[in-house]
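Narrative progress, year one. The postdoctoral researcher (J.K.) led the effort to move from monomer predictions toward full complexes, under supervision of the PI. The following entry was the first complex the group processed end to end, covering 634 residues in total.
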Amino acid sequence: MSGRGNKAAKAKLTGIVQRHKKMRGSKPSRQLRKLKIGSGLYLAPSLLGVLIFFVIPFIVIIYYSMVDNPISGNFVFLDNFKNVAQNTAFQKAVYNTLTFSAVAVPLAVVLSLMLAIVLESKLPFRSQFRTFFLSPMMVPVASVVLIWQVLFHYNGAVNDLLVSFGGSKIDWMKSEYSHVVIVILFLWKNLGYNMILFMAALSSIPKDILEVAKLESATSLQTFFYIKIRYLSSTILFVTIMSLISSFKVFREIYLLTGDYPYDTLYMLQHFMNNTFRSLDYQKLSAAAILMSIFMVIIIGILFLVENRFGKDVEG
Amino acid sequence: MSKDRMPLRNTRHKSLRSKSNRQRKKIWSVIKISIATCIAAFFAVLFLLPIVLTVSNSLMASSEISANYGSVFATSETGGKVYISEKVNLKFIPDMVSFSQYATVLLKSPDYLLKFWNSVILVGPIVVFQLLVASLASYGFARYRGRVREIIFFLYIILMLMPYQVTLVPNYLVSDWLNILDTRWAIWLPGIFSPFAVFLLTKCMRRIPASVIEAAQIDGAGEWQTYRKICMPLSRGAICSAAILVFIDYWNMVEQPIILLSDSEMHPLSVFLSKINSGEIGLAFAVATIYMVPSLLVFLYGEEYLVDGITYQGGIKG
């Protein structure tokens, strides 16, 4: 008897709880839906634009990259990719771009970290220095290209300097050294940006830890290598990736400096793309674009993965 | 170095030791700071040199320019016309300050002004409308965070990080479909919907405390009012940062016009400057300086915003 009564009571109770849950659940869910749709409307213009101008054509590009031509539409799967990968111009462009990145990116990271650390100490005119280092970022490359041409001309100022130090003249723009010129231009343009990122990271290192290190009479080198580098690790990675991405954009500088037909070692991926645009070979274009985007997605993926690990390391 | 600072336990000599220590430390820190200043100054000179040279050279008369740099830009055909020095003299200070180059650019050769105007007309709408679209979208992203929206946001980040080599192909394709190739729309539309500003503004709007928005809604504000009266004013700083970053990016654009605009009449000055012929090299410096002015003004006015924007961007992870 009592057992049955208990059961009934239980059933009644669960019923109430369920009804209650439903009630509690239903009201916010309507509100939630309203919020979802209401705020989704704000997303719509941008999303529509991104879909039309980036996502949908990209899907079409994936299709194009796998057919022999857009009209007949016979699937050839990986043939286009093979063609592009075996194209000597593409290989050269990839090689040149990667060589450039391999030199420019580490330099951009190390030098900008150095600048950030220098500015971190109590310098006179600190904010002025920051302004100076940041100003190249604002100057359009097109405006300073003339000066670069004057500086690195065969009879130009840099060669004069070399000769006066007892060196011999270098034909900067028409030899292997053209890479040096572009690297310098790249660094000039990008160091400020990286430096700001490092400065923000440096100032966010907890002060008490640095104090403790000082009390334990750690030298500034020790503080740097054992404490700062650890806190900076995620920023270093981020700056590396961002520099890598901007090193793929260095075509702009090369184009402005040397025009459509640069010295052989300066033939970059964008040159390859431009030439392919000119011949309007959709298959080649799409296959190349997809290869590059896969490469980029891998890099970005690495960024996020390592970021997660290092971020936890410091916080934990 | 650190070893002779170690025995702090020896209290009897502590005061003496610490005094000499302090002195040494002081000298050391002065040395350190002066070294750092030297490094900073060295880099500052290197960084400013190209800008200063461009400006100072724009103040030279054309005869002075060709006397100094003639051999850099002279082609064999035009070589005979003016005296051309064998060597290139880098000059910082003009013999005689003259604004003749500017006068020529501004009054006599409308070509440059036209190209400058092209730049303005290409960049202006992109900055304004990208920010408008982006501020709406970032409100959408910040107001509600579901799984779908997180995926879309992640897609935006990937798109933002893609180099032009990748994004120009889809842009070209769509422009071709919509028949806007070789018109300004081919530059405007992809620029307006570029996800960069969305990313930056969303970062900012997500930091607005939920309680602020709730309070507004309890007071009867609808979504539009919350967006317009709460979120927009609170993220004004980020909007300025984004505006500056977008502006620099497009003021500097080269890839898009040379691929999407085959008519060079519509090209912005950034592309045109590299095609200046050798006879007008003096003018080129003046034009280059004029082209720098808007972005330098923006920089001087909004340096803090720029720094904030870059720092925000550093938080891709969060």
